[in-house]
Amino acid sequence: MRGLDGKVAMVVGGGSGIGRAAARRLAEEGASVAVVDVAADAADATAAGIAAAGGRGLALHADATAPEDVDRAVDRVVTDLGGIDVLVNSVARVPRRTMYDITPQEWQDTVDACLFSYFLTTRAALPHLVARGGGKIVNVCSVTAHVGAQLPAYSAAKGAVLSWSREIAVEFAHHGITVNTVSPGVIETPINTEVLRSDAVRATMLDAIPLGRFGRPEDVAATIAFLASSDADFVSGTDVVVDGAMIASTSWGTARTAWRTHDAAR
Ligand SMILES: NC(=O)c1ccc[n+]([C@@H]2O[C@H](COP(=O)([O-])OP(=O)(O)OC[C@H]3O[C@@H](n4cnc5c(N)ncnc54)[C@H](O)[C@@H]3O)[C@@H](O)[C@H]2O)c1
């Protein structure tokens, strides 16, 4: 992979899961990485891990849904690391509520975390990417932007992330800025630890993933690193699904397994 030596990356939500793996991977590829998270200890731990591996990490405590926090974080990145070349947004909040039981406040909080935070960080970072003469934005989206998952507020926000990212890819192309989304399927991170403790959920979800395993944060981080590198200079305004072929086959559900068993028995 080419093009990350000497670059500065800002990973929002870098304290855990996919964001943490992306921060580590970008640092391994040569970037200095600002790790921004509302959980200060988590940001510190990611940055310390990067430093222990010989890289340069800067931990920043910020609530990405608060404009003044975001502006302060971006200022610190520019002051301490010299600019911004790569912005990765990897924040979320996932209330498991149906359309019947979600409250207006839960809806708003979800949209704030999953969409408004991406808007705020991008708005604050863009002038610095423009000043560098180009850059990369990678927004972590979700397969729920493509298929229904009974997560109405989360999916609505993720659908918006997908279409909004295309918009800014077009708007900022003449500045040499690329904007892409990555849509993970089921990746084992703290966000879904609780639900994946259920044997029934694990088994049926695994059955829906043709590659036969859950994703790892590193699977998504590798795609993020590619989209952040100069190998992806001509890739913009698109989405890369990282789901083990889940949404390529999801409409078959458990029928897939039954069909295979039936054919094997003939
Ligand atoms: N894990 C999956 O299966 C999966 C699937 C599809 C999409 N995603 C997406 O991947 C991204 C990362 O999720 P994850 O699975 O790594 O979850 P995670 O909970 O492990 O990490 C999310 C991080 O965001 C931070 N965060 C939350 N609210 C914040 C705020 N207001 N300001 C700053 N930081 C904040 C958290 O402290 C945490 O460190 C999210 O956008 C999520 O929607 C995850």
Automatic annotation (TrEMBL):
UniProt KW Cell membrane keyword: no
CDD domains for the chain: SDR_c (cd05233)
Pfam family, one: adh_short_C2
Signal peptide bounds: none
A single GO molecular function term of this UniProt record: oxidoreductase activity, acting on the CH-OH group of donors, NAD or NADP as acceptor
Record has Ion transport as a keyword: no
Keywords tagged on the record: Oxidoreductase
InterPro entries, per the entry: NAD(P)-bd_dom_sf, SDR_fam
Family classification: Belongs to the short-chain dehydrogenases/reductases (SDR) family.
Protein name, entry field: SDR family oxidoreductase
